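Much of what follows relies on a compact textual record of a protein's fold. Each token is a code from a learned vocabulary of local backbone shapes. The record below shows the convention in full.
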Amino acid sequence: MLLYIDPGTGSMLFTVLIGVLGAAFYAVRMMVIKLRYKLGGGKVDESLKKEPFVIFSDDKRYWKIFEPICREMDKRGKEVLYITASPDDPVLKCDYKCIKTECIADKNKMFTRLNYLNAGVLLSTTPGLEVYQWKRSKDVMYYVHIPHAAGEITLYRMFGIDYYDSILYSGEFQANDIRALEKLRNLPEKELVEGGVPYLDEMAKTLDAAEPIGEHERTVLLAPTWGPSAIFSVYGGKIIEQLLKTGYHIIVRPHPQSFTSEKEMLDKLMAEFPESDQLEWNSDTDNFNALHRSDILVSDFSGVIFDFALVHNKPVIYTSPDFDLGVYDAWWLKDNDMWVYSALPRIGCELTEDSMNNIKELIDKCLTDEHYSEGIQAVKNEAWANIGEGAKAVAEYLINKYEELTTEEEGKK
């Protein structure tokens, strides 16, 4: 009787097999390198050298987080190995003297490389260390996580940050949630360090250097995320129709992923609501211009909400996300309200099916009520530590931590 393996199981087994073969190949390679080291009279092979600092990025979109940190490390003359999974990552075209790059697009090869890495301090925004394929290397001294947004740290998949050694948080609410998770799971306490949000610092610098907008007609930016719970999937063209009825200038900026994953829906919306003097569709690579020209943002649970409110100091209209917390760390803290639920009402108004027909009143209220400008400042104080100094704070921490670790290591010899 032939043994049947369903396609899903077969695919999983094949992935596991490739991973095992990759690990075996890398282990043999390391043995050969060490043998060459001994036979060569102790001459160090480049592949055996410990990298003092490593940054790992699983996607090019995180360059905005790491670029200010790389610039600061380069300024201080600290050598950093930047490992990226994206062949078109902007870091690969940078000419920082102290930042060397390595692109590994194949996931199995990438994780094998990481799992046998020889390094001092590794910085990443990628969750899942020691949970999935990415395992802690016995030759990496310290793993540091930096969140990729100034918001909830519990909206990672379960156990996403449990096995890092330290977390660079930007708000006390994040630190409190981490400690609560550690207590519930009987985990050793991680080192929690107030880092900041370097990419928001960069956005603020760009805004400070930009020309003032000056007198203009009231402008509304509609910038939703994508997926079944996003504005376009829930409300379709009704949201654009109601915004046009306000008489205000409307900029529609779909999420970049929508042009791929929701192309049919977007094509239909763009045909139904073509560009005009009142309406423009925006797909610029950089969203700064659209944010800068707009007086208010309409969105859902996109991270652009906090970029807009905290950097541009402007209110938002948002839809409450209908989260299934079952797969997230937040599930463990479900008896406590997430910080975001207290933050959103302070920076803008909620959009519901019932209030859709009164969206002009919502816009006018947000733009004239001083409650929201005060709320934005309060939320900024809670979520954005070390304003303007985030990259410097992170670089100083990484350097000091490496010096501390190497001193301890020397003392044990």
